[in-house]
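To whoever picks this up:

The parser on our side crashed when reading a file containing two proteins. I've narrowed it down to the boundary between the first structure block and the second sequence. Both blocks are reproduced below exactly, byte for byte. First block:
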Amino acid sequence: MKDGDRNPVVAENPEGRGTFVIVCDHASNRIPEDCKAFGFAEDALQTHIAWDPGALQVARRLSARLDSTLLWPDVSRLVIDCNRAPDASSLIVTESESRKVEANHAMSAEERSRRLNTIHWLYHIAIDSCLAHRQVARLPTMLVAIHSFTPVYLGKARPWQVGIVFDEDRRLADILIEGLRADSSLTVGINEPYSPADQVYYTVARHAHSRRLPAAMIEIRNDEIDDEAGQRRWADRLAAILAAAELRLVGASHAAM
């Protein structure tokens, strides 16, 4: 398949019957063929500013464990950040972690609109379609976003191995926090290292709020998942906690019906 023929949105296990739908907004560091002429620096594409290392591997393991549909954009967030609102200043960055992204300087309004229409919009349409299909099929659904974060940001070390990001709906977040804190070796971030105030909760809020779905964003420090053993360990840990959340949230609602 030619690069230009590749779908910018990937849906894995689309017929999954498990309760969870998983999204991985920053899964890929790929630059599409029609964006390569802008000159994205190859060394930058290997760093966290281009993607969330390890996140997709954890998400895939969770998808398999929980029979979950997994959706992700196969495009670097340096091209466009699918986890930002269309009007956010960080939608298409010109600087990230003090590094200039020269490829995005002097970008035209037409190019911005093209990326929105051919990547960002398609990703969110795919999530909408998945959730709408599940609603019609009367499948109980919770939405989980998997991300990773760098151990040091702008020279400051981050002590958390994992962070749970949530807004006013704490149903799923509280169960995740409780389950993670049961392991005394973990330092768990509560809306750390990011919170919705940092404009990082766009995907979850956009798709969960209107449907009143339990939802949360899970941020794993990327040195914890930089090899297969770490990815397996975190997927197993999170799968067990999410299975418990399913019993408490979905099982309880079914018992009341």
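<<boundary where parser fails>>
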Amino acid sequence: MDNFNINRRHFLKGATAALVVSALGVDGLDILHSSKPWRVALIGTGWYGKSDLFRLIQVAPVEVVALCDVDKNQLQAAGLLVSKRQKSGKMPRLYVDHQKMLSENQFDIILIGTPDHWHALQTIEALKAGAHVYVQKPVSVDVLEGESMLAAARKYKRTVQVGLQRRSTPHLVEAKKNIVDAGLLGKISHVEMFCYYHMRNSANPPEQPIPDFFDYERWTGPAPMLPYRGLPHRSWRSFMEYGNGIMGDMGVHMFDAARWMLNLGWPTKIYSTGGIYSSNPGISNITDTQTAIFEYDQLTCVWQHRTWGEASDPQYPWGYKIYGEKGTLSCSVMQYDFVPYGDGKKIHQDVVYEKEKFPEDLTEKDIELHTAPATRVHMLNFLKSIEDGSLPHADIEEGHISTACCILANLSMKTGRPLRYDPIRRIILNDENATLWLQRPYRPTWVHPEPNQP
């Protein structure tokens, strides 16, 4: 299918040239010529759903056919914004029910920006409807959801790109090529990954009436029905019922980046410990302190988060550090630093911005300016993979492995013992009790997807 038209000369300017080449390769630019736009829908029109959609609009001709959200006010506002941003100026069709949206339209691409507990069902339904999918991380809230998503993507022969855009972040792509792959670190035996943001919500709001513009039943979907305490936009991240805590929110990004840089697959063993140690707990039930160890052959990857105190390195409050026999590489969304042992040359690189090329970034509400170039590359790579059948940078299998390992870390913390996952048999080795937790129970009337029946 012919799909998008980019002015090659305009696109290959300055730092953007590196972005395109890293996403597509020089020859890959030739496929970006066509007159037919992609038919696109977005499910979940909150903060990052709109951000992902606007990055796609910036790099490819698309027609946003429909939007879906259970908050009618948010949905209407998103529709107006999209009508101003897309070339046609058309208002997308607006839906509260994503299943109705899928049944009444045909799409090339569906973006999913809903809370984590909806990712699996909506991805699989979109794949069955014939669409390619861009889904936010983490891909699932339990391990077998992720296995089912992977099975569905392969069965229906559709591309699924996961929003783990560190794999498309220009300065990190450079660090992988020029530091890690070039051998400047020598033998690598240890990785530290961390987040020290004070991001845990410790509020304790009272139970409230559900407003008529918000479908709380549909928002909850397969997850447990908790008392309604106000619009859950963003605040849902503080509840394990809807996600996987900071381990699955922030940790999945850095663990995935470390796996990508070092070409790592499944770890041999995962162990984690933590809890609510320092915060006023409020109604939030995610940890404020947690450590997880992912063991590989002659290599350990260790995650730590704290939502209190100071970062051990103020320049790197969220990131990862790779330790080799010849030096250390520190990486974050904002920069990287290579420090060799001895008298070698230090190397520093900052994040790439594209403020001049995409001035609309400067007026977009809540945009993460430092992430916008990476997401644009991620979208271009997604489209290229659809075109040529290659696996995208953050293919669903890679997204599933990184997500599942974070889920297993939380499960290890819950059970109090290390876990060894067998992805072939889909069991925790020698642990029947922990194996039962690979699938969370769904609310009645909702059916959990099965890997063997995608």
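After patching the parser it read the second block fine. The longest helix spans residues 396-415. The longest strand covers residues 188-195.
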